Amino acid sequence: MASPTTSDPAPLTRDDIQAWPKAELHCHLDGSMRLETMLELAKTQGKRDVLPSDSVEGLRDELRAVEASESLEAYLSWFGYALPLLQTTEALRRAAYELAEDNAEENVRYLEVRYSPILHVEEGLSLEAVNDAVLDGLAQAERDFDITTSLIICGLRDRFESASMRLAEMAVEYKHEGIVAFDLAGGEAGNPPKGHLHAFYHARNNLLNLTIHAGEAWGPDSIRQALFYCGAHRIGHGISLRKDPELMQYFADHRIPLEVCPSSNVHTQAVPSLEAHPIETFVHSNIPVTVNTDNRLFSRTSVTEELWRVYQHCNLDASDLREIALNGFRYAFLPYEQKQSLLRSTIDDFPLKAGPETPLW
User: Fold this and answer.
1) What is the rounded distance in angstroms from the CA atom of residue 214 to the CA atom of residue 201?
2) How far apart are CA 333 and CA 233, in angstroms?
3) Which of 53, 60, 176, 193 has the fewest CB atoms inside 10 Å of its own CB, making it the most exposed?
């Protein structure tokens, strides 16, 4: 395990990070359920056979195998446990509420949840009913906890572009009701972003924010397509960016943020270990980096845990980690004034106070 550098001005504990105000910009609803909720839903919905165990302990044992996933596609197959349980408005509302509650409990002040409504219509729900249920759950959590939430709609790489277009249209329809961005997710290999070009044009032409999973299981060309064909404002994962120094400089020059998910990147074989993760290279190349969970359930993690793992294993000091945490607020998909207000209040509450060298933006 790599230790924090000896020049670290303020060594951290995990409790320090737990207390920090935090933001989460890359979190999948269907990959972040509570095990207890999955068991209860399986029982009440008569779907016990969906899960490989009928106990929390048994499910935890099964989830340890996530670390042995041989590829991104193998990792994504684990969603087969969660998706069958999220086909009712009650289940969707509950999952969204509990996800926000879990984040609020670790002092996440701002949460962007992403999902693809098209995966939740197998039992007759309309796309609108699905989306309304998720938004209802998040809205109730905002009333009950000290957290601000937003929702991101995902198109899917392995579907026809017509499906992505319908989802982009829906995202635009809801852009004043809690939807802040459009995304593209799913297996990268053989499914380039430019195959969904018209969906992204529709979202961009209607002034919606864009983030795209790219450079996770495919090379820098996937990132270039996400940026220059589809117009992405943020990149999800972006691990292969390290292979293209010129593109790295472009990210630094144009302040294009990466939504890095360290544990997930190990589990999907994007990197062999946390020690081999390029996050240090990105940070020290002046690329804006945020640290996120991706899937709290399947990677058995939290925002606090991800930041702590980075601090332990990735050769970044407390000041680096503090800037990463603040980047979660700086690069949120929120209106400028709201984002600045949230960031100011966050800095005021931050245990490591901002100095004159630390701008809000």
Assistant:
1) 17
2) 10
3) 176
- Whether residue 224 contacts residue 247, with contact meaning beta carbons closer than 8 Å, is answered with yes
Residue among 101, 131, 99 at smallest CA distance from 113: 99
H-type helices in the chain, by residue range?
Answer: 14-19, 35-44, 56-63, 72-76, 79-82, 89-105, 127-144, 161-173, 197-205, 220-224, 245-254, 262-267, 279-284, 303-313, 318-330, 336-349
Is the distance from CB of 73 to CB of 187 less than 8 angstroms? yes
Tell me the C-alpha distance between 307 and 290, whole Å: 10
Q: Known catalytic residues?
A: 216
pTM of the model: 0.93
Structure letter (DSSP) for residue 121: -
Q: Where are the domains of the chain?
A: 17-349
Burial state string for 89-120 with b = 16 or more CB within 10 A and e = fewer than 16: bebbbbbbbbbbbbbbebbbbbbbbbbbbbbb
**CATH of the domain spanning 17-349:** 3.20.20.140
CA distances in angstroms from 127 to 116, 131, 186, 289, 303, listed in the order given: 9, 6, 19, 33, 29
- Residue 287 near residue 251 (C-beta atoms within 8 A): yes
Copy the structure tokens of residue 288: 């804006």
**Cα torsion 355, 254, 194, 173: sign:** positive
Residue by residue, DSSP assigns 32-101 as: ---HHHHHHHHHHTT-GGGSS-SSHHHHHHHHGGGGG--SHHHHHTTHHHHGGG--SHHHHHHHHHHHHH
Write out the chain's pLDDT in tens, 361 residues: 444 544 555 689 999 999 999 999 999 999 999 999 999 999 999 999 989 889 999 988 887 777 767 776 777 777 888 999 999 999 999 999 999 999 999 999 999 999 999 999 999 999 999 999 999 999 999 999 999 999 999 999 888 899 999 999 999 999 999 999 999 998 877 788 899 999 999 999 999 999 999 999 899 999 999 999 999 999 999 999 999 999 999 999 999 999 999 999 999 889 999 999 999 999 999 999 999 999 999 899 999 999 999 999 999 999 999 999 999 999 999 999 999 999 998 887 776 554 444 455 5
